[in-house]
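User: quick one, sequence for these tokens?
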């Protein structure tokens, strides 16, 4: 008899009060890897695949610390930091998600969630405050006794936010932090793993099979098992690099900057999908700029999955206006005049330059990759999805068998800025 059936039979015999007590008794449900290490540590790093139980583990540890449960090493010092990719992500996952803080507390212990102040307040006075990794300066002036950092490999300003948080962890006799993330080959993550005060625990998606929908694991493993994406997203591995890819991660890392420089020219590049609707490819939308010294900067990736023409055109125009760009560069191989037309239905005043792909993707991309090798292209912040695609882009013109929509748009943007000389930059407001 399967574990799920036995568990169902056991639960059927319990009354409502017993069910509620059992539901919130985390040590009963937790796997060994989800229990806090007994040894001394400052950082508990939980690396895992999708659905491996990372969020629940982080939330339960923070709950234990906030409620001063002696089974959970660490003390809140009255203040806890929650740091994530964005406020919306934190609200949807860390706070209000199915494995988030509000769901895992018994009603009597549940903290008050004040969304407008981005705060959780427990009845014992402990305060949990949310911070976006897009604004590391928001942490300045705060101090905490504990922190929960979620999906740090997606943080747009990873190094700066992490460093600022470390200066804030100064309450109590032994501040601690839990990090829950699907790993990527980032320098900070590697340093964190090597730090002697870090306890690293790795979990795979399959280890949490009992809590996943029937058929989910078989489905994703049949498709992704053994691939780079599967090793990362299911097995929680740090996948370094496809040796045959045109771009190398170290090239991108050493040319990453934190602050937007002054730009003389800005373009928005669009790689529209051949079709629209639920089965269409993504629409690559990249913003890039040109500095006075001739170097280029990637400043935004607003690629849309399965976007209708109206939607991707609106996204491109919005990005054009946000950066006061000079032009939208759009590939028209698939859509012809329709591409220009749909953009101009959103805003007829926006200049659009149509570009045609007369050569293969790899050939078009090689000169741009060479600029990266020479340190002539910088990334302002992190663009995980774009960078993953760049470092999986091979001579067949695909990235892990997928059309490289983000790379295509990137290539058009950098080509326009650095490999051709066209219109003069527009005059931007001060």
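Assistant:
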């Amino acid at each position: 008899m399967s574990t799920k059936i036995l568990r169902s039979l056991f639960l059927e015999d319990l009354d409502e009060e017993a069910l509620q007590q059992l539901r919130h008794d985390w040590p009963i449900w937790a796997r060994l890897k989800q229990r806090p290490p007994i040894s001394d540590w400052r950082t508990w790093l939980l690396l895992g695949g999708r659905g491996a139980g990372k969020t629940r583990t982080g939330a339960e540890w923070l709950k234990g610390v906030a409620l001063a449960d002696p089974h959970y090493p660490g003390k809140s010092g009255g203040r806890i930091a929650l740091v994530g990719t964005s406020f919306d992500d934190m609200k949807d996952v860390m706070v209000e998600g199915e494995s988030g803080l509000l769901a895992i507390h018994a009603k009597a212990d549940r903290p008050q969630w004040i969304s407008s102040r981005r705060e959780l307040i427990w009845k014992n006075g402990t305060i949990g405050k949310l911070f976006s990794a897009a604004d590391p300066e928001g942490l300045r002036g705060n101090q905490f006794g504990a922190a929960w950092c979620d999906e740090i490999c997606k943080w747009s300003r990873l190094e700066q936010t992490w460093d600022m948080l470390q200066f804030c962890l100064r309450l109590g006799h032994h501040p601690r932090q839990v990090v829950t993330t699907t790993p990527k080959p980032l320098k900070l993550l590697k340093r964190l793993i090597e730090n002697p005060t870090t306890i690293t625990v790795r979990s795979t998606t399959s280890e949490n099979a009992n809590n996943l929908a029937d058929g989910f694991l078989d489905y994703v493993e049949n498709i992704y098992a053994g691939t780079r994406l599967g090793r990362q997203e299911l097995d929680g591995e740090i996948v370094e690099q496809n040796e045959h890819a045109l771009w190398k991660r170290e090239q991108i890392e050493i040319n990453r900057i934190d602050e937007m420089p002054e730009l003389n020219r800005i373009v928005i590049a669009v790689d529209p999908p051949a079709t629209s609707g639920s089965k269409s490819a993504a629409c690559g939308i990249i913003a890039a700029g040109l500095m006075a010294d001739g170097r280029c900067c990637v400043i935004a990736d607003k690629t849309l999955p399965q976007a209708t023409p109206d939607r991707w055109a609106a996204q491109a125009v919005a990005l054009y206006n946000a950066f006061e760009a000079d032009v939208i560069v759009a590939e028209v191989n698939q859509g012809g005049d329709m591409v220009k037309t749909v953009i101009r239905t959103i805003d007829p005043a926006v200049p659009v330059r149509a570009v045609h792909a007369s050569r293969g993707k790899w050939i078009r991309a090689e000169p741009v990759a060479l600029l990266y090798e020479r340190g002539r292209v910088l990334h302002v912040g992190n663009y995980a999805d774009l960078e993953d695609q760049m470092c999986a882009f091979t001579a067949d013109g695909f990235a892990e068998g997928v059309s490289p929509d983000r790379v295509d748009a990137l290539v058009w943007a950098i080509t326009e800025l650095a490999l051709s000389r066209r219109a003069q930059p527009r005059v931007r407001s001060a």
